[in-house]
Write a structure and sequence with these properties.
InterPro entries: Gly_zipper-like_dom (IPR058598). This is Glycine zipper-like domain-containing protein. With 59 residues, the protein is an all-alpha fold. The chain has one domain. It is built from two helices and no strands. The protein starts with 15 loop residues before the first helix and ends with a helix. The mean pLDDT is 85.
């Protein structure tokens, strides 16, 4: 018997936030300023993730 009655389904697909953080870490390491790289990666990833969610809601 499954116990999924009260739980939401996991979102399937790409998490752009994680990709953005990864790219930000790489950029930060290249610029020798990890904090700025991570901040830029989070901002870009969150924006792309939000845009992707809105696009999926309209389907």
């Amino acid at each position: 018997m499954k116990e999924d009655s009260g739980k939401k389904k996991k979102q399937e697909g790409i998490s752009y936030l994680v990709i953005g953080i990864g790219v930000g870490v790489a950029l930060g390491a290249a610029m020798n300023n990890l904090a700025i790289g991570i901040a830029l990666g989070v901002a870009i990833g969150a924006g792309l993730d939000q845009q992707n969610r809105k696009k999926n809601e309209n389907k």
